[in-house]
Description:
The chain is mainly beta.
Amino acid sequence: MASWEPDNPARPPAGVRLCALAEIADPGGKSFRFREGSRMFAGFVIREGEAARGFVDSCPHAGWPLAPLDDRYLTRDARHILCAGHGALFALDGHCIAGPCAGDRLHDWPVEVRAGEVWTA
Ligand code: FES
């Protein structure tokens, strides 16, 4: 079963605090991992100013996490999300614009910012 599937028991429910917005570089990204028994849910949050957007950390190409070693989810110019696996490029809304999964998109992981804190939504 893939990490993005809605019935993944490791996927946190709405209302879970993830971090302070200030803990995410601006612009930048941060990974989050949750475990439930043998299952894991992997997500990441991209920050742009006071806004944050979450995605399941699973590339539509091969299902690998996009930035397995650190929180470097964005290209150097911060205009795109980059998959370290085979170099797919995604617009900041999650649509793949170049690479082996062009035309596909990342799965959304809804998050919201409240009073400077990032929460699952
Ligand atoms: S796993 Fe992301 S481009 Fe191949």
